[in-house]
Amino acid sequence: MRNFASSRFLPLFFGLAVLTTPCWAAQSGAAAQSVSKASPAPAKTAATTAKPDASPEVCKGCHVAEYGSWEKSPHWKTTLNKTAGPLHQGCQGCHGDAAAHLADPTDTSKLFKFETATPKEINNQCLACHSGDMEHAHALNSVHAKNGVSCTACHSPHHSTQPEFLLVKAQPELCYTCHLAKKAEFAMPFHHRVNEGLVQCTDCHNPHGTEGPKQVRMASTQDQVCYKCHIDKEGPFVYEHAPVKVDGCTSCHVVHGGPNPHMLKVSNVNLLCLQCHTTSSFSSAPGAPSFHNQATFFQACTLCHVAIHGSNFSSTFFK
Predict the structure, then answer these.
(1) What percent of the chain has pLDDT over 90?
(2) How many domains does the chain have?
(3) Is 223 exposed, middle or buried (0-12, 13-18, 19+ CB in 10 A)?
(4) CB–CB of 141/97 below 8 Å?
């Protein structure tokens, strides 16, 4: 009888086992899935590879001549810039990230190449460092920049022949490369002694631009640059000569050179003075007295009006 009961319930046991197996498997799978979601497998960590050394000494291996000129130039000071990082030091400071070029010397896609860049791109590259002083404050709006002249037209970081400012050639020959008409003016009998080396073009002009016309510098008093040298003509005077203060030095003088003494615009002094001192209504200057008959004696106005730029003693500039 016991064996019969056991045999009778045995199929029922196996049936229950078969029915419960999928449920247990489903629960196990769900549990495993929840475990996998709760704690994902750690991702593969990419091997962190440091950038190759792009110090100037490494570049020297191929670019020996460029390194030799660089280490003697002011640009070597970029290696002292420890706060900005390697991309602002040495060769990379001008030529950009050299990592790809070091990995494959034929790959120059990431480098800034001055020989193929436009003037605007070159100027922007240089001004990334050279824009923090008043000398370059107007560089992007200068006459040179507007006419497509780049920094490397006058400066050569690697092939400069001048120790100062890395110029391509010395002044004034550098300026004469474009300004040929001014070269002729400085060859006149009466001229500022630029060709003799006493004065340089950049003493009067800022090649990187100014607020005024013709890129002319200003004196320390924000007046004409002429007063940097001709300080005795600046004043102030008790009796001012109006053209000096209103129109400036160029109302009577040419600036670079001319055929007349004192670099005057005309050959005879009286012809210059009579341009304003006339009885015509357009000028507020007093006309010449009637006894100034323009004979030989009266053709040299400055024989009597000696203090023609201004006087502290005479309203007629006699002294």
Answers:
(1) 49
(2) 3
(3) middle
(4) no
